[in-house]
């Protein structure tokens, strides 16, 4: 699989540390832009690609490209703090016998340290065949990857498996986060997932943050990281460099402000 006509593209959306506002990584998101009919959403094209038997080749292409991109950030922006890339893994590819070889290939090809590659598995994928998920996850951890459970709260998690899975991060589904301001139950659910993650020693990322008020609430309940339109929409690869540079300048100047205001 090659995206010759550049119809398939990876976009990148920043993931921000809640306490400091710093960008800590990016999620790679697949976009399909056709010359004839404009952009087609993943919700539409993924099932089509699945029927056409293209999911595995596309997924290999995504892994390779996202790892290369992240290796490029490290070369350009140096080691401190080193940005990670978060990659969505398709269920079909995850359960494919070639999966481990394919991820190894992607890191060897780009020479990236796999601790800066997070593989996102949806909660429903992870729970579908939990014993085999656990086995594959352990192999991935053995290779040094970080693992993340995506869309957490929408599947049917077994808490005993959640405890056994060697995962690093929970991502709270955006349906809870985007309604936090108006729906007290969803606010309570977000708070509970954050506490669960803290008690299990896991990182927790809130998805779909669109308002300052949601961000303030996440800060108050101690959520580690956040992602959403409030910080940025997913952007093409060419825009990432400028985003990182300007985000770092902003963080540096707000640190300066904090220092001068405590001094006075
Ligand atoms: O399944 P997953 O959580 O990986 O999907 C992320 C999707 O959510 C992407 O398609 C991305 O464009 C979209 N998205 C990211 N941030 C926001 C947001 O703040 N609001 C909404 N409505 N969608 C978002
Ligand atoms: Mn995701």
List key phrases describing it.
11 helices, 264 residues, binds manganese (II) ion, binds guanosine-5'-monophosphate, alpha/beta, 10 strands, globular
Description:
With 264 residues, the protein is α/β, with parallel strands linked by helices. Helices cover 50% and strands 21% of the residues. The chain has helices spanning 42-51, 55-77, 91-94, 99-110, 123-128, 130-143, 159-164, 174-177, 184-199, 212-220, 237-263, and strands spanning 8-17, 23-34, 38-40, 84-88, 117-122, 146-152, 169-172, 203-206, 225-226, 235-236. Strands 1-2-4-5-6-7-8-9 form an eight-stranded mixed barrel, surrounded by four helices. The chain is globular and about 45 Å long. The mean pLDDT is 92. The protein binds guanosine-5'-monophosphate and manganese (II) ion. Manganese (II) ion is lined by residues 27, 88, 120, 150.
* Ligand list: guanosine-5'-monophosphate, manganese (II) ion
Helix/strand order = EEEHHEHHEHHEHEHHEHEEH
Tell me the fraction of residues in β-strands, as a range. 15-25%
Please report the number of helical segments.
11
Question: What general form does the structure show?
Answer: globular
How would you sum up the major sheet?
Answer: 8 strands, mixed, barrel
Radius of gyration of CA atoms, rounded to a whole number: 19 Å
Helix content: 40-55%
Note the gap between the termini.
60 Å
Strand order of the largest sheet: 1-2-4-5-6-7-8-9
In round numbers, the mean pLDDT is 92
Summarize the structure.
This protein is an alpha/beta fold. Helix content is 50%, strand content 21%. The model has no long low-confidence stretch (mean pLDDT 92).
